[in-house]
Design goal:
This protein is α+β, with helices and mostly antiparallel strands. Helices cover 62% and strands 12% of the residues. Helix 2 packs antiparallel against helix 4, helix 2 packs across helix 8 and helix 6 packs across helix 8.
């Protein structure tokens, strides 16, 4: 039995490692396509890009593990079934569950490791990735001047180039507007040709200009009356070096403490503590809103002493505790003079609109706070549900492969992708329901497991009983027998 365990273990580990890196690479490409616009054209160093990719890879490991286990289990048992090795083992009296036992233990160990990774390592990786990604997004773009278009990314300057040689870097027809004095287009530099370089520290752009002219329209100081005729200076040069400072070209690292309060940067203990604080704060705000609504809106009494306008009498009437009986309310209002009734309705209408606006604003604010709490609950349950998916997918993939009896990268890949897409769609739907408050967090985040777990148990039951319910060859045989029966009917032989 020990040799059998080693044999099954070796048959599983190889495909799992291979499919794990394949799944990780696919998820990396998805992440890259999502943030490609924030990375290109920033002049980032290779070390920064590799560091960012490393952090992103660490955040994708919990998602890649279930997919790799699903694909590896289908491939392993599909290969064993296709080469009749599984049949030979079963013929010796060993059940399928006994064959799966070493892999069940190995999958449980992976599940525990996946939970530890999600709870302790992934929050740190998320923190470092989001901090570095924030710095990259705010990094000044690499200087790239296009032909025939003004380049305005350098503060205070506007540069236009008529022609640019991509091989030699020679620029022709250079026009530079200097707006640093905030006085309009008063300083212009024209050059026949030149070169553009950036210093190693990327703090300055150096322009070597050749055969050009500089125009400077002199202006009076601010506050002085401008003359119709203004002094004008024109200079010619054969060579001139212009050094322009690049603001923010050198990337500065942001303090990671600014992102530590985000729910994706916390473990389950921190999430529980932060969620409890948010819920207590939300409860206090709801109670305060209710008290303010009752005190200031439902029973409103300003206490004004202005009897001349009659407002005090009307407001006192509004503040009187009255019966819910409509007739008594109507008689109370009709007891007032017509002018006072008009004022009463006007005040009541304004007061109602103000109260409605206040209620709407507070409800929106409380709803957003509740959604923020729901996101903490989602992240808390995700660490458990995504780890449990490793066991779930094994009990789907292993019996699935033993029933289908197809190995390699053909059908197992197709089946794995379809099952994973199904799991992912259900998970996203459940997560959306939790965010919107439609379902509690424990229901929405475990919805995919609740739907797929019966599937895994059913497949395991059928595989233990050597069912051919999903065996493709059995369906082909059935179709062949059905087509033969139809032919016999058509020829009249039956």
């Amino acid at each position: 039995m020990k040799k059998l365990n080693i044999f099954i273990f070796k048959a599983f580990v190889g495909p799992m490692v291979l499919t794990f890196f394949i799944a990780l690479f696919i998820l990396q490409m998805q992440w890259l396509f999502k943030f490609i616009d924030d990375l290109i054209g920033k002049g980032l160093e290779l070390s920064i890009i590799l560091e960012l990719f490393g952090y992103a890879t660490a955040t994708l490991v919990p998602m890649a593990l279930p997919l790799s286990i699903l694909l590896a289990s289908i491939m392993t048992f599909g290969n064993l079934g296709e080469h009749f090795e599984l049949l030979a083992i079963k013929s010796s009296g060993i059940s399928l569950l006994r064959i799966m036992r070493p892999l069940i233990v190995f999958t449980i160990i992976i599940t525990i490791g996946a939970f530890y990774f999600s709870n302790n390592i992934q929050p740190i990786a998320n923190l470092k990735m989001q901090t570095l990604l924030y710095d990259v997004k705010n990094q000044s773009p690499e200087i790239s001047v296009k032909e025939g278009a003004f380049f305005n990314d350098i503060e205070g300057y506007s540069i236009k180039v008529s022609h640019k040689n991509p091989e030699t870097g020679l620029l022709k027809g250079i026009m530079i507007y200097n707006h640093t004095n905030r006085m309009g287009n008063t300083q212009v530099i024209l050059a026949d040709s030149g070169y553009m370089t950036i210093t190693e520290d990327k703090r300055y752009m150096v322009l070597d200009l050749y055969h050009g002219r500089a125009y400077d329209e002199m202006t009076e100081g601010p506050g002085k009356k401008q003359k119709h005729t203004k002094p004008h200076r024109r200079d010619q040069f054969d060579h001139q070096e212009l050094r322009l400072q690049l603001e923010g070209a050198e990337m500065e690292r942001t303090d990671e403490g600014l992102f530590k309060k985000h729910y994706q940067m916390m473990n389950i203990k921190q999430l529980a503590i932060n969620q409890d604080s948010l819920e207590q704060n939300l409860t206090k705000r709801r109670l305060q809103f209710e008290r303010n609504l009752l005190r200031s809106n439902y029973f409103k009494k300003t206490g004004t002493e202005n009897d001349e306008t009659g407002h005090k009498e009307i407001e006192d009437t509004l503040a009187k505790p009255i019966s819910s009986d409509t007739l008594m309310l109507r008689s109370l209002i009709q007891s007032l003079p017509a002018e006072k009734q008009t004022q009463l309705y006007k005040i009541a209408g304004n007061f109602t609109r103000s109260t409605k606006s206040q209620i709407t604003t507070n409800i929106n604010d409380l709803t957003q706070s509740q959604k923020h709490i729901n996101r903490h609950k989602i992240e808390w349950h995700r660490k458990f549900s995504l780890s449990f998916a490793c066991i779930l997918f094994f009990f789907i993939g292993a019996p699935f492969g033993s029933i289908v009896r197809k190995g390699g990268f053909g059908m197992p890949v197709v089946l794995s992708v379809l099952l994973f897409i199904l799991y992912y769609v259900i998970s996203i739907t459940g997560e959306k329901f939790v965010r919107e408050g439609v379902l509690p967090a424990y229901q929405g985040m475990w919805l995919s497991a609740a739907i797929l777990l019966p599937m895994g148990l059913f497949l395991t039951y059928k595989a233990v009983g050597d069912s051919v319910i999903i065996n493709v060859d059995s369906y082909f045989k059935f179709l062949n027998r059905f087509s033969s029966w139809v032919k016999r009917i058509n020829t009249g032989t039956e």
